[in-house]
Amino acid sequence: MSDPRARTRHGDERGSASLELVIVVPAVVAVIALLTAGWRLWSVRSQVREAAAAGARAATLARNGAEAEQAASAAIDADLETVGSSCTGPTVGIDVSAFSAPPGQGGDVGVDVTCEVPFTDLLIPMPGALTVEGHAGSRLDSFRERQP
User: Fold this and answer.
1) 0.85 cut: is pTM over it?
2) Reduced to 3 states, what is the DSSP secondary structure of residue 133?
3) d(CA 66, CA 99)
4) Nearest-5° angle of CA 19, CA 24, CA 28?
5) Of all helices (H) and strands (E), which one includes residue 94?
C-alpha cells in the first residue's frame, strides 16, 4: 500500500512544471536576444573600425587631398559592402588637411565613420538602434611631393 503522506507531497507539486516553463522560457529567450544584439553590436563596431582604417590607408596613397577623399570613400564603401555589414546610413568624415603641409613635414590623414546598428531585423526583434563610430589615422610620407 502506498503512504497517504506521499500522495499529499505529490499533490502539492502539481502544476509546478508548467509554472517553471512559464518563468524559465521567457528568461532564456531574453538572454538569447541580448546575446544576439550584443554580438551584432560588437561585429558592426569592428567592421566600422576596419573600414575607417582601410579608408585612411587608401587616402595616404593619393597624390592630393581631393584624390585622397575619393579613395577613402571608395575604400570604406567597398569594405563595408564586402563584409555585408548591418551598418545603416554610414557617414564618413575625412581630414586631408595634411596634404597642404609642405614636403618634409609630417602629417596624418584622419577618417571617421559613423553608422546606426538596427536590432529590429534580428531573429528576436528588439526595438531601436545604436550608433557606432570608428576612427583611424594614417601617416603621410613626409618626403613625398604633395599637391594641395
Assistant:
1) no
2) strand
3) 10
4) 160
5) strand 88-95
Is 64:148 a contact under the CB 8 Å cutoff? yes
Per-residue pLDDT reduced to its tens digit, 17-43 = 777 788 888 888 889 888 988 898 899
- Helix 65-82 × helix 16-60 angle, to 10°: 150
CA-to-CA separations, 68 to 53, 56, 122, 133, in angstroms, rounded: 13, 9, 36, 21
Q: Which residues pair with 114 in a beta bridge?
A: 91, 133
Q: Is the pLDDT of residue 7 over 80?
A: no
C-alpha cell at 38: 550584443
Q: Which three cell numbers stand for residue 43?
A: 561585429
DSSP letters for 108-122: EEEEEEEEEEE-TTS
pLDDT tens column, 77-107: 999 988 887 888 889 999 999 888 877 777 8
Cβ-based neighbour number of residue 97 at 10 Å:
13
Cβ neighbours of residue 100 under 8 Å, at least 6 residues apart?
65, 146, 148
Lowest mean pLDDT among 2-6, 34-38, 62-66: 2-6
